[in-house]
User: Fold Heparin lyase I family protein from Streptomyces rectiviolaceus.
Amino acid sequence: MRKRTGTLTAAASSLVLLTAAPADASVIWDGDASAGTGVFSSTLCDSPGSVVAQDNNDGRGQVFKFNKPLGLERCEAHGISVGGSRYTFKNNSTYWIGWDTSTNTPDAGTIFQWKSYGTNDQHQQNYPVLMKVEGGVLKLFHIEVGEKWTLKWSTPVTTSTYKRIVLGIHTSSDASAGWVSAFYNGTKVAEFSGRTWDDLGNDTRFGTYGSEVKDKRVINWIDGLKVGTTYGDVDG
Assistant:
């Protein structure tokens, strides 16, 4: 359960209707926290860290609390569960991913990874699309083959305030065919092309991660998680 954090502008709405609304639009996954952590395929958060659904009495109802204490590098949820089974994302397909995020610190590390399967020479990109909160700035990166990081968009953010993020990802192992479209609080903020699908495939990771946050206490509150085939499936 969530409240809207932004309104789609008329110009952005027109772009979405023209480029991202196929006739077979559908919500693939509703990650409502009221259903508990079973909406994820798995959680990667060692004790004393935790991923729980909790009501903060702020009108949102149940939201996910990713709690990473000192000494841990990650507290994440990996993949999504649809119909009781792990959902398999596919190459040459378009996915829209939407969620609200609110962190307790301006240095929350990586909050989203479009994570590649495999290790070392089993993948070429590791995480083709990644978002971080560091130094009070939300950053969107594209990571190309060979660990070539390119910052595609950034904006200052306030702690303990929900922001709505929507990413459209067209999966392709061909750098000329893949693309990413990003919306922030209802406004389109970035669009770029490039390789978005690694050798063994990719999956979602939400939460907090990074060696740079090992010495920090990080909480990432996440709400309104959805995956669909159009922007309209996940914008609110």
